[in-house]
UniProtKB/TrEMBL annotation:
Organism: Romboutsia weinsteinii
Pfam families registered for this protein in UniProt: Hydrolase (PF00702)
Coiled coil, from the record: none
Stored InterPro entries: HAD-like_sf (IPR036412), HAD-SF_hydro_IA (IPR006439), HAD-SF_hydro_IA_YjjG/PynA (IPR011951), HAD_sf (IPR023214), PGP-like_dom2 (IPR023198), Pyrimidine_5'-ntase_YjjG (IPR052550)
Organismal lineage: Bacteria, Bacillati, Bacillota, Clostridia, Peptostreptococcales
This protein's name: Noncanonical pyrimidine nucleotidase, YjjG family
MF term (GO), any: 5'-nucleotidase activity
Length: 227
């Protein structure tokens, strides 16, 4: 068995973040008043959120600033006068309640958990990710959880992978595999850290980046044959 440690990304790999985000945004939009319909507001927020997380991965904004700044931009774009801090607090609270797994997540983690050490490495917000992971039915499968917001290091910085390895007292990088959906954070980060990578390409996208994973899967259950 080549691998002894498996690092998983959380959102859009094990957890269905689209469903979580839609759940939280639906709750939030029900709580505010605006002349625009809910679908338009949600679309506008997602545009802002995607852009600001790209800035975060590039080191252009901190996680604490991100939480509020995305709602400042959102409110500005819609021309509404809601306080960004209040919107952020409400949204984070709703987001923490949304713990939705992909259909195959429980089965694959149950299968892997007695064969490998398993850790999550996520670029999420600590108060959100801790609640969602603990609330899920798979929390007992993880030997460790590393959240960028807690250690102030984010993927693709190789230091976050070094931190995760240190937590497990594991030094042999050749026996570690990083699995995630993001070429720019998970795959690039794993490559930067000198560990093998597996791209979870649920949408069967074309890889037009410079980052070439060791493996590519479209369904988590493919890991049974791969590992």
């Amino acid at each position: 068995m080549k691998y002894k440690v498996i690092f998983f990304d959380a959102d859009d790999t094990l957890f269905d973040f689209k469903k979580t985000q839609d759940f939280a945004l639906d709750k939030l939009m029900d709580s505010i008043e605006t002349e625009f319909d809910k679908d338009y507001c949600i679309t506008e927020y997602k545009k802002v959120n995607t852009k600001i997380w790209e800035e975060f991965e590039q080191g252009l904004i901190s996680s604490s600033d991100l939480k509020v700044e995305r709602f400042r931009r959102f409110a500005y774009n819609l021309g509404i006068t809601y306080d960004a801090n209040e919107l952020s607090s409400m949204y984070v609270d709703f987001l923490g309640d949304g713990s939705f797994l992909y259909e195959e997540t429980y089965e694959i983690l149950s299968y892997l958990s007695d064969k490998y050490k398993i850790s999550i490495i996520t670029n999420g917000l600590a108060d959100v990710q801790n609640r969602r992971i603990k609330k899920s039915t798979v929390s007992n499968f993880f030997d460790d959880v590393v959240i960028s917001d807690e250690i102030k290091i984010a993927k693709p910085d190789p230091k976050i992978f070094e931190h995760a390895l240190s937590n497990l007292n594991h030094t042999d990088k050749s026996s570690v595999l990083m699995i995630g959906d993001s070429l720019n954070s998970d795959i690039k980060g794993g490559i930067n850290a000198g560990i093998d990578t597996c791209w979870f390409n649920l949408g069967k996208k074309i890889n037009d980046s410079d980052f070439v994973p060791n493996y590519e899967i479209n369904n988590l259950l493919e890991l049974k044959d791969l590992l």
